[in-house]
Amino acid sequence: MAEAATGAVRVEKVRGRSALTRCFARYPLKLIAPSKVGPASCDAVWLYALTYGGGIVSGDTISCTVSVGDGCTAAITTQASTKVYKAVGSKCSEQLLEASVGEDALLAVIPDPVTCFSTARYHQKQVFQISANSNLVIVDWFTSGRYECGEKWDFSFYKSVNHIFLGDQPLFIDSVLLENGSNCSIAEQMKEYNVIAMVVLLGPKLKSIQEQMQDEVRKLMSGQLRPPTSGGSLYAMRSQPPQRPQRPPLVASCSPFGRTGTGMVARVAAVSTELVYGFLRQHLAALEPFLGASPYSTS
Which portions of the sequence form the region Disordered (predicted)? Predict the structure, then answer.
């Protein structure tokens, strides 16, 4: 992938601080490195990944390599949702990311969601090579499309793959595939939910954030999924037709991974993008001391 890369990033220690020592991008990718995000005392490099034209055109391939050196901190985000335009024929739009994270380093990949237009075909793959004490945050999420305009789950193909390797050993392998044209459409499977998200937290620096998220998600779902208590007499209960339970507007789950539980993956489904933004703001706010700013903050 290196020869065809449309972007290349390297973060290394320079005079004891994390610094961007390489930042290359060519069409259709553009990388912006703001000079300051958060307080000057924070040792973190931020990068914004953009595409010319405000989205990914059918047939475009965007590939990027990222290297975060030992002890460094870097965050990669976007300025808005990644729009994937309508497919031309069977052409598929692609985004590929290969990242290496050094010892005691932290990489946070925290983009806005992918939004696929009607008939769009999109494939995303992210491969992370980590060390024993690396720290990694991955937010990978997508919407049903321009659902506020009535365009819900109308894209043709969506695939997102995330691989994490510790040395040559696979630590985390995940793949999401949605494709229309089968007996059951994507819209029929998703019901009223319009946003799907995955959050991965890995590494010793993030242990307390993992534990807090697991605890809060457990409390949230135990309250939302608890069956309602029935009051009144037995006659009243029998005379009323059984009510169909309503699905919560947001559902979430957490599970550890790795031999010693060093990683955690959270999965979220929600009826709106705003609900997921709120979830991410709340549960990733504890990253601010590392990154200098709270992910997905509205300020």
Answer: 225-249
